[in-house]
TrEMBL record, chains A, B:
Name of the protein in its database record: Putative NBD/HSP70 family sugar kinase
Pfam families: ROK (PF00480)
Family assignment from sequence similarity: Belongs to the ROK (NagC/XylR) family.
Lineage, opening ranks: Bacteria, Bacillati, Actinomycetota, Actinomycetes, Micromonosporales
GO MF term set: kinase activity
Domain of life: Bacteria
PANTHER family listed in its UniProt record: GLUCOKINASE, ROK (REPRESSOR, ORF, KINASE) FAMILY
Keywords: Kinase, Transferase
DNA sequence: GGACTTTAGCAACGCTGTTGCGTTAGTTGT
DNA sequence: ACAACTAACGCAACAGCGTTGCTAAAGTCC
């Protein structure tokens, strides 16, 4: 029965509005979504039933019956995200609104095995769920998201061949973690998780965007047409290995003149940012994006320099910049972006607007 | 009532199969789409009613009742596509299968006005519909598609500022043409129309792809996640104006080292193709595509050289090329690609798999 | 010719959003 | 005070989608 898709779709539509706006009411939701007021009533009733939204008083207009106002209950659902790097595991507990409520970092052994990661992950998750001081423990945990370095296969949750980690070849991480934790697990590339963090928090206006990450490499998380773009083999976003200088300096990937190689050799942050700016303009020319989000530990160390330099490049180097509105911002969650984004991927899979094909 | 979306969605799903495969039958359609056989029966009944498919005998298996076989009726629906360049108007009459049944080219006056184009278009459309020899004239014309050089706004069908055409500033071309022709009109960028031609003819397996066009400039039409990617301002695909050589030769766009500038200065076709190959590899690194289609009059003049050179670049320059399967082909419709693709955009809007958001 | 296998179709059903209309909770005017 | 008006709300009947359960049809095999 595919009627369930319609229900979930409209429910997610209204919930997205509730997340994005301070409050919602029947009339405005009906206008924005195109649903009839009666249909919105039914959707709101279901969302109230699930505890996702709650009444928030009434709005008195000049005349007529006051409208009932509702708002999101951020604490009604939770998710935990994990950011796996070569040396550490960072966890973030996130509520339905995408706010980070707690986070923790633990070291990982050098050249750690899948089993070692799972142990740390399991311990970290239980620690986050039983906070030492806070009284009310989260009830509805939607699942756990894991953001990793590639390459991997997002559809099956398999790590193909994690770069510079010996024990990671064709590891079905999602299945292993689901079994170990007893929770739904979503495995994805770090950059895709990161861009999901921005998308989940900004809502429907965030349709075409890239999150540029500089952190032991240069990558990009792509959000195109309102959903994550992973490519045919979950390998999209290898933005640092695009050539910007034919016959330029050699890169670790074997080619010459890659953006990453030129960027890393620039010397000072301003020069590096200018190189990145060229890459960002290339991306804009190719994809016509509306939002550029800058992230990654190495970048955020000189966040302001990068933001100003990239914004200047966008303003001056993109032809017809007058009507090609582009917004350049720093990642709102800073160094928590990947871990929190991984959590939000779980929320997005369960409470986001679904795709009819089920992807 | 949004139930209509479900109906159209499933109908389009089955029709896509009918287009892509030689024949369809209830059982296999049910398997592929996930619908129940009973639901497929209802969908097939509707498609028969509309004349889009027709019975094509039965398939006798080793045992049991033979299965009823159906196939597409290509001539049941038609569309006309127009390719507008600075000097000529090329038209193509296309059937539901995406086969070009007739085409024509007429010259356009230098620096033509919108009204001059509409006159030529109107005359050309009526000429194509009343063929001198063929007896049966097409009945069901779904509409007319127009593929143009940008920049334009696809959502409203407005030409913002056609490059090097003086009379084309903020022209609501779709509205004007709809009024003049009395038919639905779809206006889009030439490269997007071109990639739609490939997508319509190849079906569901064509999910992440780029059509690279070399024809008075270098551009790319993007097909991502199963739909056209136009970007936030219908300006995606300005692939020729991505920098591949910092401080390289000056480009007409004002920057230096653009792919197009380097490509045009390469000298012989093989060297030019090698430059294009670097750009294609950049695109693959960024977007992880599965299909690269090469098109455009200037490229197809040396089609084989380009195809071999680009394929070689993809095989040798993409890291981990072993599992990143990429197919490099020449445009199946040759120089008709843009005009025919514009026609298929109309078919796709009416008979393609719809988007719940209505985009 | 009967048993078996596979496909097809009829009819009742559950669930979605829609439609029509009456109810409720306010403000405004007398 | 009380009626008139306004705007939001909700109940109930409804149309149309895919689903389910079952029966009929058209073949092959023994």
């Amino acid at each position: 029965m595919h009627l369930a898709f319609l229900r979930d779709y409209h429910e997610a539509l209204v919930l997205t509005l509730a997340r994005t706006r301070p409050t919602i009411e029947r009339g405005t939701v009906a206008e924005v979504t195109g649903l009839t007021p009666q249909a919105v009533s039914k959707v709101i009733a279901r969302l109230l039933e699930e505890g996702l939204i709650a009444p928030a008083g009434v709005r008195r207009a000049a005349m007529g019956k006051p409208a009932a106002v509702y708002q999101l209950v951020p604490g009604s659902r939770w998710a935990i995200g994990a950011h796996v790097t070569r040396r550490a595991l960072r966890l973030a507990l996130t509520d339905l609104a995408g706010t980070v409520r707690a986070s923790a970092t633990t070291a990982l052994p050098p050249d750690f095995t899948p089993d070692q990661l799972l142990s740390e992950l399991s311990a970290g998750v239980t620690a986050l769920l039983a906070p030492p001081d806070s009284g009310g423990s989260p009830r509805h945990l939607a699942g756990v998201g894991i953001g990793m370095i590639g390459p991997l296969d997002q559809a099956t949750g398999t790590v193909r061949d994690a770069h510079r980690l010996r024990h990671w070849h064709d590891i079905p991480l999602a299945d292993l973690a689901t079994e170990r934790l007893g929770l739904p697990v979503h495995v994805d590339k770090d950059v895709t998780a990161a861009v999901t963090a921005e998308a989940w928090r900004r809502g429907a206006g965030f349709r075409d965007a890239a999150l540029i990450m500089v952190e032991s490499g240069v990558g990009a998380g792509l959000w195109l047409g309102g959903t994550a773009h992973r490519g045919a083999h979950t390998n999209a976003g290898e933005f640092g290995h695009t050539v910007v200088q034919l016959d330029g300096p050699p890169c670790v990937c074997g080619r010459r003149g890659c953006l990453e190689a030129v960027h890393d050799r620039a010397g000072d942050p301003a020069a590096a940012a200018a190189v990145l700016g060229v890459g960002v303009v290339n991306l804009l020319q190719t994809l016509d994006l509306e939002h550029i989000v800058l992230a990654g530990a190495d970048l955020l160390e000189h966040g302001d320099v990068y933001r100003r330099t990239v914004e200047h490049a966008v303003r001056t180097q993109v032809p017809r910049a007058d009507w090609l509105s582009v917004e350049v911002t720093l990642a709102g969650l800073g160094t928590d972006t990947i871990a929190a984004g991984a959590a939000m991927q779980v929320l997005n899979a369960r409470y986001g607007v679904p795709d009819p094909a089920g992807r």
